[in-house]
Amino acid sequence: MVSHAFCVPELAGDRLDALADLLAEAGVGLTTVAPSAHQVLPFRELRARGVRVGLGSDGVRDSWSPYGNADMLHRAHLLGWTTDARTDRELTDCFALAADGGAELLDLPRVTLRPGSPADFMLLAGECLPQVVIDLPARELVVRAGRVVAADGRLLG
């Protein structure tokens, strides 16, 4: 896995396709943190060619980026902002990268609401997923491994 890979967003067309094919064949995944529009990995193109891509949150309250807060919904919002996501599909892609990309890189199971899925989820008010990515509503409940870890925006001890 390679984090950041800030040179990859400079590639396009055949050069990007060739690199993506090499990465996919070698099983090398990439991560991004959505730092700025010109440094975000072209995650849709990479994933379409079989490259595993994740979205992370580093720079949590440090000098590289004091705006990090380790909130992956917020990171999906920032990814949408930096990539100029406008459509429901684009905003949903940003959420999916935040929700599933990292787990895929770590070979962890995808979280769904089906029996047997990891009991990791959050409850919040929203009309649809794209609206949630845009508005960042407060999390009413956060559950990790079947245990309530936060409620009404407060971490539980």
How does this model look, in words?
It is a single chain. By secondary structure, the chain is an alpha/beta fold. Helices cover about 35% and strands about 15% of the residues. The chain has five helices and seven strands, in the order βαβαβααβαβββ. α2 links the parallel β2 and β3 (about 55). α3 (about 70-80) packs across α4 (about 90-105). The mean pLDDT is about 95. Pfam families: Amidohydro_3. InterPro entries: Amidohydro_3, Metal-dep_hydrolase_composite, Metal_Hydrolase, Metallo-hydrolase_Enzymes.
Shape: globular
> How confident is the prediction overall: mean pLDDT?
93
How much strand?
Answer: 15-25%
Strand order of the largest sheet: 4-5-6-7
Question: Which key phrases capture this entry?
Answer:
globular; Amidohydro_3; three-stranded parallel sheet; 157 residues; 16% strand; alpha/beta; 5 helices; four-stranded antiparallel sheet
Brief characterization of the structure:
This protein is of the alpha/beta class and 157 residues long.
Topology:
Layout: E1 2-3, H1 13-26, E2 30-32, H2 43-48, E3 53-55, H3 72-82, H4 88-105, E4 121-124, H5 129-135, E5 139-144, E6 147-151, E7 154-155
Parallel strand pairs: 1-2, 2-3
Antiparallel strand pairs: 4-5, 5-6, 6-7
Helix pairs in contact: 3-4, 3-5, 4-5
Protein name: Amidohydrolase 3 domain-containing protein
Domain Amidohydrolase: 12-149
Pfam families: Amidohydro_3
